[in-house]
Amino acid sequence: MDFEPITRPLTDAEARAEAERIITQSFQPEAPPVRHFPTSFRDTTPPRAYGDTPPVHQDDKRIVPAWAAGIAVASIGVGAGITGIGCGAWLVLQGLASVTLYGVLMVTLPFAGLAMVATAIGGAISKARSVSKTVYEGPVTQNTQINNTSNQRGMFSRTRNDVR
Q1: CA distance 27 to 71
Q2: Cα 142–Cα 145–Cα 149 angle in degrees, nearest 5
């Protein structure tokens, strides 16, 4: 390249020729073009409808390990179970929200009557059993003996009371 400064202005023909030279030099590739190869292939032939070719064995290549899949299934089951329990609790609480005092009394009335009958039968049976009373007669002797032992030495002491 010539880098000497131009001392005189270029004529129109010289300027046009210099511009064409610069443009062709700028857009000319420096390296040979890269040849592109296809990275995939699509077979467009239709598959046969029938034939005697055996099936091809396909290896089992799972992305998720078996223990992780088991934990996932178990967590789905636990979630479904908890959802069922929650729905049941919601239904029970909805029923309890509509409870009135008269409704509670009507529900507990048979149980209270049954308890009253059971108490009456139990009282009658205990009265029937307590008819015969055994009385013991005879002399009674009562002996009480208290032994008081005390060992005191220094800061600690021990007192022992024996009642017989």
Answers
A1: 62
A2: 165
The sign of the torsion formed by the CA atoms of 87, 90, 96, 97 equals negative
Token pair belonging to 32: 């040979």
Q: In this structure, which amino acid lies at residue 106?
A: M
State the Cα angle at 102 between 99 and 103, rounded to 5°.
45
SS3 call for 156: strand
**Residues 95-118 pLDDT 10s:** 878 878 887 788 888 999 999 999
The 10s digit of each residue's pLDDT in 36-57 is 777 888 888 887 777 777 777 8
What does the alpha-carbon distance between residue 101 and residue 41 come to, in Å, rounded to a whole number? 80
